[in-house]
Amino acid sequence: MDVPNGEDGVAGITQNAVEPGESFTYRFVVKNQAGTYWYHSHQVSSEAVEKGLFGPLIVLPPNDSFTGKDIPIVAHSWLTNERSYQEAFGIADTMKRLIVQPGTPVRLRLINTDSLPITFALSGTPFKVIAIDGTDLNAPTELTGQRLLLAAGGRYDIQFTMPGTAVSLDWPQKSSKVSFLLSQDATASAPALVNGPVFNPATYGSPSKMPFSLSSHFDKEFALLLDDKVGFYNGQMGYLWPINGKVFPNTPMLMVHEGDLVKMSFVNRSWMDHPMHLHGHHMLVLSYNGRPVTGSPWWVDTLNVAPGESYEVAFRADNPGIWMDHCHNLYHAAAGMILHLGYEGVSSPFEVGHGTINQPE
Ligand SMILES: [Cu+2]
Fold first, then answer.
1. CA–centroid distance, residue 304 to ligand 1 (Å)
2. Most Cβ neighbours (<10 Å): which of 44, 209, 308, 335?
3. What Pfam families does this protein's entry cite (predicted)?
4. Is 264 part of any domain?
5. Would you say residue 88 lies in a domain?
């Protein structure tokens, strides 16, 4: 979520890593940010997050009138001792049942804490996607059978009214045994798995007033080309994930003045998805593959850029600091796919990298 820079928790940028036996308290005021978020370690995050240093962070509106079932679904996987991947929804690594009476409104807050995109399938009921990355969508319409591809680090909130028959949320991939089965009794079997097209937020919902658009005058424009290459990094041979040909710490610092209107474009020329995550700001998606977004205003803090895709986004530079802008595939971040958004006049007393205690990625 958008917190003041000093509460951002990035080792080597906004604080030193919290070492064994130490503590650090984050203090911030939550204003106008009702929605679904999560928090995680930003010290050796690729390893720390896979092994569980994370949790959901749900902000309810001041006068929450929702009376139905409100359920966070924290989707995660990790490498087991048998060298295979284990998936889980929260602490459930097999099918989990929940008894829900027909007519009950149900809100599922899907949170992808993994490093790869997750395709969810909600079977047995039409549903609406009511929020993305903590921001409500305008005039969402009912979907049936569509699958939901959620960026690593991203969140979709979906809502439906419980029907008289069972509803199932699945993470349909080969190794996965997890599912979440809602029914009015403990014996119902799962409905047939839906297999429709993938939901596209760019054309979903209705437009409404936006603070800026493709035709705005931008104070700063940044183009980020996302590539792959093979090379040495931290003394190991492997895939590197350069931005504009460079890997961290040689990636360019994007410099802005407070108040700037900033346009950023992403082009993925590599063979893997890059869920691009900017700290401290929400980005308004303006275009997808060269076509303007025609649906609801679509605000993100994490945008999945698949191979061959391009996006233009914009944001107001209204939160001074030094902010990470990185791929939320944390293994890509650990192999160089990191840069920073810097505000003129802001510096950091902390140090990062080998020879320091701070390894944020
Ligand atoms: Cu990536």
1. 9
2. 335
3. Cu-oxidase, Cu-oxidase_2, Cu-oxidase_3
4. yes
5. yes
Does residue 224 sit in the same domain as residue 182? no
Provide the ipTM: 0.86
| Whether residue 147 is found in the same domain as residue 116 | yes
Ligand 1 center to 294 CA (angstroms): 27
Q: What is the pLDDT of residues 235-289, one digit of tens each?
A: 889 999 999 999 999 998 999 999 999 999 999 999 999 999 999 999 999 999 9
The count of structural domains within the chain is 2
Residue 259 CA to ligand 1 center (angstroms) comes to 29
Q: Are residues 264 and 189 both part of a single domain?
A: no
What distance, in Å, lies between the first and last C-alpha atoms of the chain?
18
